[in-house]
Structures are given as structure tokens and as C-alpha cells.
Amino acid sequence: MRTATIKRETKETKINLTLNLDGEGQSSINTGVGFLDHMLTLLAFHGQFDLNLTCDGDLQVDSHHTVEDIGIALGDALTECLGDKRGIYRYGSFTIPMDEALVTVDLDISGRAFLVYHVPDLPTVILGNYETEMTEEFFRALATHGNLTLHINEHYGKNSHHIIEACFKALGRALKQAVKIDPENADKVSSSKGVL
């Protein structure tokens, strides 16, 4: 089982996170940010990994530190779960329609952290106590600490909830593809260099 437990504590957040990449899409999430809880639940479900997460953050300030630090912790957990990345398919790509919105996520578990985020300014600034501009910061933190090359492209959309939800669902589906073990190459690293 590819599992990791991350405990991250700063003056701004206290995070406990457990990730099982070979799970069933089950999750128990309490971040204090309801919209983020919803998105992470969808991410785990569509990625078919198990995620248990609690965060006590400085929400009296705003959601920034909570959202970003969870991205950091999840990226760290992903890196730990994958180890030397032996046997994984490595690449994933998925397009999700969410009502009027359409989003594509393409990723490479490359060992080279890079985020391309083409999501135009979201029409809604706040969803509950979640600042929508934090969506990009979450994905940047995840890409950096998960050592992912991550491209997120919104083709179109009008509703902020739908656009962000499509991003998270597409990421889950793309990750599911990328971390899956290729039975024909289970003892190999998917790189001509021999290392990722």
C-alpha cells in the first residue's frame, strides 16, 4: 500500500493528513473551510485514493494559509507515497464538463515542479469563507511539493463553483491515471533517463 502521513505545524496552521493512493475514494476532511472540504472530497473520490485530513488554521485572518498549507501537505504526501515512482504510468489527462464549465487537467509526475494555470478571473470572489483566488495557490503548492508538471486549462465557464469543481474533479481523474501501476512495467521507471 502506498501511504503517507504528514504532520505540518506552523504558527498559522496545524495539519494532520493521511493519504492512501491505493484506496477506494473514501475521505474524512475538516479544514474549517467548507468549500475546500467539498473540493478535497471530490478530489479523493475521483482520484480513488483515501484522504483523511484535519486542519486548524488562522481563519480569523482569511483562508490563505489554510488552503496553501494543505496544498503543501498533500504534495508532500504524494511525493512520499510515490517514492522512486517505479511502475507508474506517470502521465494523466482528463477533461471534465460541469454544467456550463469545461476544464482540462494534464499532468506529468516528472520530478520537475511547474504549474500552468489558465483559468481567467473567476466571477465570484468569495464562496463561503473560501477566497476563490486561492485556487491557483493551492494548485501551485501541490505542484511544487508533489513535483508535478501540472497544466490546468479552463475552456469556458461562468459559475465560479462549477469552474473550480471541474478543476478538482479533472485533477483527481488525471492523478488516478498517472499514479496507476503499469503491470507490464511494474519494475521500471517511466523515463528514458531511468529516473524521475
Shape estimate: globular
> What's the number of helices?
4
**Widest sheet: strand order?**
1-2-4-3
Beta strands, count: 10
- Separation of the first and last Cα atoms: 20 Å
If you average the pLDDT, what whole number results? 97
Largest sheet: number of strands, sense, barrel closure: 4 strands, mixed
Class by alpha and beta content? alpha+beta
Approximately what portion of the residues adopt beta-strand conformation? 25-35%
Oligomer category: single chain
If you had to describe this structure to a student in words, what would you say it looks like?
The protein is of the alpha+beta class and 196 residues long. Helix content is 34%, strand content 31%. It has helices at residues 34-47, 64-82, 134-146, 160-179; strands at residues 3-9, 13-20, 27-30, 50-57, 91-98, 101-108, 114-118, 126-127, 130-131, 149-156. It has a four-stranded mixed β-sheet, covered by helices on one side. β1 and β2 form a beta hairpin. The longest helix has 20 residues, at 160-179. The protein is globular, with a radius of gyration of 16 Å. The two termini are 20 Å apart. The model has no long low-confidence stretch (mean pLDDT 97).
Write a concise synopsis of the structure shown.
By secondary structure, the protein is α+β, with helices and mostly antiparallel strands. 34% of the residues lie in helices and 31% in strands.
